[in-house]
Request: fold
Amino acid sequence: MRSYIARPDQDPGSLFARLAGFTPSSNTLSLASATTRTPSREQMNKLEITTLVDVCDLDIPRLEAVVKQLLSDNEVHLPISCVLTHDTHIRQLNKKYRNIDKTTDVLSFELSDAIHPEAHYCGEIYISVDRARQQAKAHNRSLQVEITHLTVHGTLHLLGFEHDTPEGYTQMQKEEKKYLTLIE
Reply:
């Protein structure tokens, strides 16, 4: 599983511009829209899902419940935006923000108050449903479990978890398993 946490300040003309209400130019990738207002009590610890592909067999309330629990356990009171997209879109994002012209399964974009106080979002997660379907089949599990796994993985990155060391990898796997037990 590969994911990447990108910082919007690396490209202030795109992600953060969307948050500030600017309209992107025609060559800017379409990103999930976010508002610059303070989230209401109902929006706190919320997963806002945008689907750009057909995922009719996905139980969104179950997915939201897992992320809400993860955010609550980590005392994060900001919503997360999750975009379920296709390989072509995630490859464009990967190329634009990481300069890697390959498809990946999940990308995380931090939009925390520490970087941009106006954002009022913890971040955005992009998941390739095409890749999730392939991985679900390879791991002999449902698409629901795979997308939940990728969403938890991306959320953990937004919360500062990394897997670039053996200790970090072990800790991240432990956290993923903890939250996946909520749906299995």
Helices lie at 15-19, 60-73, 87-98, 129-138, 143-158, 166-180.
